[in-house]
Design a protein that fits this description.
The complex is a heterodimer of chains A (236) and B (783). Chain A is α/β, with parallel strands linked by helices and 236 residues long. Chain A contains 6 helices and 11 strands. Classes of the chains: A alpha/beta (236), B alpha+beta (783).
């Protein structure tokens, strides 16, 4: 198996995703340049956090037109695993690969701190190694994490179980209090109908070692590895 | 011979407007053997400005210790470089961007961060951490500060915070520490000092010496515009007056996205092996980079301004040479290999143009579309500028009487409500509302971010394998108030505190950088403060083994004749040999024993000696005295550098042994604040930890306030699991440090300090924490 981390001009969490997968999980991982014509035979793609194109116009608005995104879209449409983290989530929304859009944090300021998110669905390749209701402590670092969508889309997301993470408090008792940015329905992460593309605002790649404050993000990467192992077995 | 018949003619008035004195003008004529043209005058005026030439500080800076076993590069290059083992070096430096931050807080702060980051990666080091040391006027009205001024200070603070965060966050470097201080004197002269740290392989450090006759000179990065012209000479080298608002066009504008591209492109281009020298374009832009690279290399340089990428039309040679447009670098490549370098910048979407070449003979020739716009011998310009030994006159001795000093309350007085007031004061209150606006964890190296340890700690990943062994610790410290009362003593304390903070995180202090913020050097009393400060820094840096590897001097921090407190800010770098042994400030377990470690009492018995200068006089310089009684007087505590060193060595040893649960040095607000901060778990993260507090008893020969809140150095609080007590006492004895148990960590809500049998502080720890945690946010988000 091989993971690919896409690098846009201005991506700055690409190294962190690479390190988490390569050094902590010890799985093969490669960088994919934004002008690349293909995905170098990677089995799972990560769109990392950062400020691609300086967040000019709107966060993720320009990155979605990068040459590599053609390949990413094709890959996603054929069922390939794609995870967008923070800016990556924003890019997937702009590209229409995930529903909804990101707005400025309700407090209008950049926020960097640990938050807690609850795993709502475990039937995705990003959460299959977690328990339903499991609470993960993971850092956020963003000024545009206020996930938004219209009523119809929200209803759809709920009906099709596409909300995979909600913000909550450390003991899971109060989602509203745990919401750092005003996101509608405290949504921290969603997946597409096909459940092969997901995005989340928190940074799991920053939560893979306890020395850094939490290793709760590991379960997301473990899930992806499990899913790839399972897929390889299925085609064997 | 430089000509331009349509150019402005240089007159004595125009020279004066440029800040060039009559004597300096005569020197220019001597160097050129003729009068300068307007472009040449502009070049001389920025190169010889205070900010770029250090003309008033050079004679004193010589007294600083700059050498050491681990120092690879001392002052004189873009940043200091220190050997950190395993073939790696750390490049680090602190720099000021004060005046622009008053005129345009957001852009001033943001370009300050941008500038220091470039100073690091121009050396070939990837930046891994930023710290910001900020000073503002009071943010609430007081007898010194009117309501409108307090509101203005809040606006400036807000702009600066957003500016610092916006650059670091987008660029992708964590802002892991720093400090925020408040004094009335900074109201119209805020201080923004930014420190950056980077890592490189020892053999891959790049210097800025133009070498190799015929080698191409290449301009890379953003296009040149008219922003920031005269930023160095007009802003940084002159005080503010009523017309200061008009200086807004002199403030540079930053683009962190552009700088991120520049960073990646530069580091990648450096790997080609085709780059001979590289320097960023900071203060005085193209002028400084061309002249300094040629001067350092002992060569000449020739460039054609017509080739410089420009984003405005009809720019004159003067404007192009003096522009301080950000995110640009100048480099020298090996002849024949320029295409390798250009290709890298093209890949990253950046302008990269060959604009000239390195020449023989030491002359810098600036051409513009076929004509010579300026022609100056580089070395005399860069190295033989004016050097002033300005007059020094100490102030008349301060006559103070007991009535001027802090008056202690009667024995047994309950100090709880004053303690709450102190905890809520901006100086002491939690800065979390500020630091949460910085990305503190990008690059996944942050082992201790703001508020977690006494120093910021970042781990080092091996560039090839990614394995982690060591970590680096950094702290920035300074106390303008103490330096005003006694510059030499205050400066020594600044070094001692920064080193102590580093040691309290478990790291061994190895080097330092300094940012010296002062008033006008044309005032003999300011020069006296400066000279005294240098003496103090020199003595402390020598005693504590932290040579100065670089930094900067910021003069003219004054408005309408009133200058700031002399404010040296010191950044100390330390190495933690085992990254897993970081020490943090928070208490861990109910029942842990609380010890005071004191380097200034012999561990073999010995009473604490009474303060040399008298208790009232010394206490009047404390944060408590200022916050509770509004009194700033007396003298800073005496300092014992040998005691500081003993304590630091002891803390480093305790960390290596894994012997203590927490460590927190005693500084602002004394032992009471230290105990409180260690009791307040990281706030706001919903930490599922029971409320921990402290129950301690102190007994000393002085009034309660003095015992609880005095700021004498060489002390720290550690908490210890009872079974490890003997080992800790043993280590303390080895280092001749006194270790006295004063109490225990308790579970539950009662925070209690007993003094001479009286419960002088007795409070709910949650109530104390609330005052400390939310006070700054409440003040800054109010209208």
């Amino acid at each position: 198996m091989k993971f690919g981390v896409v690098v846009f001009p201005g991506s700055n969490c690409d190294h962190d995703a690479f390190y988490a997968i390569g050094n902590v999980l010890k799985k093969p991982v490669e960088f994919i340049w934004h002008q690349s014509q293909d995905l170098a035979n990677c089995d799972a793609i990560i769109l990392p956090g950062g400020f691609s194109y300086g967040d000019y116009l709107r966060t993720g608005a320009i990155a979605r037109f990068s040459p590599v995104m053609k390949s990413v879209e094709k890959f996603a449409k054929s069922g390939g695993m794609v995870l967008g983290i923070c800016n990556g989530f924003q890019i997937l929304c702009e590209a229409g690969l995930l529903p909804g859009a990101m707005m400025r944090n309700s407090g209008l300021r950049f926020i960097c701190r640990h938050v807690h998110i609850r795993v709502e669905q475990t039937d995705t390749p990003f959460t299959n190694a977690a328990q339903k209701g499991q609470i993960l402590k993971i850092p956020i670092a963003h000024s545009d994490g206020n996930y938004n969508c219209d009523e119809a889309t929200l209803a759809d997301l709920e009906k099709n179980h596409q909300v995979i993470f909600h913000y909550t408090t450390s003991n899971g008792s109060d989602d509203n209090a745990g919401n750092p940015n005003g996101a509608v329905h405290n949504i921290a992460g969603v997946c597409n109908r096909g459940r092969n593309v997901a995005g989340l605002m928190p940074h799991p790649e920053r939560a893979v070692e306890s020395s850094l404050g939490s290793a709760d993000g590991l379960v997301i990467f473990h899930s992806m590895v499990e899913a790839l192992v399972g897929a390889a077995k299925a085609t064997a | 011979m430089a000509t331009a018949s349509t150019e402005i003619r240089v007159t004595p008035e125009i020279a004066a407007e440029h800040g060039v004195t009559r004597e300096e003008y005569a020197r220019i004529q001597q160097i050129l053997s003729r009068d300068p043209n307007i472009t040449e005058l502009g070049i001389f005026s920025v190169m010889w400005s205070e900010h770029c030439s250090y003309k008033s500080s050079k004679v004193h800076l010589k007294r600083l210790p700059t050498r050491g076993k681990l120092v690879v590069q001392g002052p004189g290059e873009n940043a200091g470089v220190v050997d950190i083992g395993d073939g790696l070096v750390a490049a680090f430096k602190i720099e000021s961007h004060n005046h622009p931050s008053y005129v345009e807080p957001f852009q001033g702060a943001t370009t300050g961060v941008g500038g220091i980051l470039r100073d690091i990666f121009t050396m070939g080091a990837r930046p891994i951490a930023v710290l910001d040391s900020l000073r503002f006027g009071e943010i609430t009205a007081s007898k010194h500060t009117s309501k409108p001024d307090a509101a203005k200070n809040r606006r400036i603070l807000d702009g600066v915070i957003r500016g610092v965060g916006s650059y670091g966050n987008c660029f992708g470097v964590p802002t892991v520490g720093g400090e925020v201080a408040f004094e009335p004197c900074y109201s119209q002269n805020p201080l923004v000092n930014a420190l950056a740290l980077g890592i490189a392989k020892k053999e891959e450090i790049f210097l800025a010496k133009a070498k190799g006759i015929g080698n191409p000179v290449i301009y890379v990065g953003a296009k040149t515009g008219r922003d920031g012209i005269h930023g160095a000479s007009l802003l940084a080298s002159a005080e503010f007056t009523e017309e200061s608002k008009q200086k807004r066009p002199n403030v540079q504008v930053g683009d962190p996205f552009m700088e991120k591209l520049l960073l990646e492109a530069c580091l990648e281009a450096m790997q080609t092996g085709a780059i001979v020298a590289i320097q960023d374009m900071g203060a005085a832009g193209l002028t400084c980079s061309t002249m300094e690279m040629a001067s350092r290399g002992g060569t000449g340089i020739e460039i054609d301004l017509g080739k410089v990428p420009q984003r405005e039309t009809s720019m004159t040679p003067y404007e192009i040479m003096l522009s301080e447009s950000q995110e640009r670098m100048l480099l020298v490549a090996e002849k024949g290999r320029e295409h390798e370098v250009l290709a890298v910048f093209k890949k990253w979407g950046l302008d990269a143009v060959v604009v000239g070449q390195v020449t023989e003979g030491g002359i810098a020739r600036i051409n513009n579309n076929g004509r010579v716009a300026a022609e100056i011998p580089a070395h005399p310009l860069a190295e033989e500028g004016p050097v002033y030994n300005r007059p020094i006159v100490g102030p008349a001795p301060r006559i103070e009487r007991e009535k001027d000093w802090f008056a202690f309350a009667p024995e047994g007085t309950n100090l709880t409500s004053d303690f709450v007031k102190l905890l809520a004061s901006p100086a002491i209150a939690s800065k979390r509302w500020i630091t949460e606006q910085y990305d503190t964890s990008v690059r996944t190296n942050t082992l201790a971010g703001p508020g977690e340890s006494d120093a910021a700690v970042v781990r080092i990943k091996d560039p090839k394998t990614g394995t982690v062994k060591r970590a680096l610790a950094l702290s920035t410290d300074g106390n303008g108030r103490w330096c005003q009362l006694n510059p030499r003593l205050g400066a020594m304390h600044a070094v001692a505190e920064a080193a102590r903070n580093v040691a309290a995180s478990g790291a061994r202090p190895i080097a330092a950088t300094n940012c010296l913020n002062f008033g006008s050097p044309e005032k003999p009393e300011v020069m006296w403060q400066f000279s005294q400060t240098i003496d103090g820094l020199a003595e402390a840096c020598s005693a504590l083994g932290t040579p100065i590897t670089g930094g900067n001097v910021s003069f003219y921090n004054e408005t309408l004749g009133k200058s700031i407190y002399p404010t040296p800010v010191i950044g100390v770098l330390g190495i933690l040999d085992d990254a897993s042994q970081v020490l943090k400030i928070a208490f861990h377990n109910e029942g842990d024993l609380i010890l005071v470690l004191d380097g200034s009492i012999s561990s073999v018995g010995g009473q604490h000696a009474p303060p040399l200068l008298g208790t009232q006089r010394e206490f009047s310089s404390s944060e408590y005295s200022k916050a509770i009684a509004g009194i700033v007087a007396g003298e800073p505590p005496a300092i014992d550098l040998a005691a500081e060193k003993r304590l630091q060595d002891c803390l480093v040893a305790l960390a290596a042994e894994g012997a203590v649960q927490s460590a927190h040095d005693i500084s602002d607000g004394g032992v009471a604040v230290t105990l409180a901060e260690s009791s307040f778990a990281p706030v706001g993260t919903g930490m599922a930890r029971p409320a921990l507090s402290a129950n301690v008893a102190l007994n000393d020969g002085v009034p309660a306030e003095a015992a609880l809140f005095n700021e004498r150095g060489a002390r720290a609080i550690v908490s210890v699991i009872p079974s490890k007590l003997a080992a800790v006492l043993d280590t303390a004895r080895q280092y001749n440090v006194a270790a006295q148990q004063i109490g225990q960590v308790t579970r539950g809500d009662a925070f209690r300090i007993e003094y001479k049998g009286h419960a002088v502080i007795n409070s709910s720890v949650v109530a104390l924490r609330d005052a400390w945690a939310h006070s700054l946010e409440r003040t800054l988000t109010s209208k």
